[in-house]
Amino acid sequence: MNLNKIPLDKEIILNTTEEVIRRFGPDKANITDVAKSLKVSHAAIYRYFNGKTALWNAVTERWLTKMNAALEDILKEDNPADIKLFHLLDEFAESKRRSAIHDPEMFANYMKLAHSSVEVIKKSIEEGINRIEKIIVQGISEGIFFTESPHQAARSVYLSTGVFINPNSFEDPNRKQNIRSVINLLIRGLKNPN
């Protein structure tokens, strides 16, 4: 038995794939690089993932889950819905910007998948809308927000703030002020009973 051999599982493959993407970038990284790093054959990786697309999707989904962990924490805050929604939307915009700065290769991988409308991205968008909807429902029960369709309002709020996860907005010197202005406008709109 070779004691130096690392047992292979999904988590090890995902960790190695992230390393490979960070080393070579999402455009140049491939499954061969992952297999070489793990000192295994392609076939060993295919036992866990059905090709590069499935592997890259799994890596992106895991990365999004880690990045969105702070958003889940905000849902648990003991705050009124308007404050909670402000925190959630502000963190949503800033987490993408931080990841683009501190983890540019993984952010580029995310953007690459976003342009091809992969299911992982669609799932992430729906999760974002659902987080907002939970807060809107809380706000309705608190008598703070007024809307007949919390889900549609959540979708509109998500779409209104989506511009701030676009890399083109990251260098805008007025970015933070713009984010807060849009969030405050959206919250005022939700508070309006008419």
Automatic annotation (TrEMBL):
Residues 30-49 bind DNA. Keywords: DNA-binding, Transcription, Transcription regulation. It comes from the Bacteria. Residues 7-67 form the HTH tetR-type domain. One of its GO terms (molecular function) is DNA binding. This is TetR family transcriptional regulator. It comes from Cohnella zeiphila.
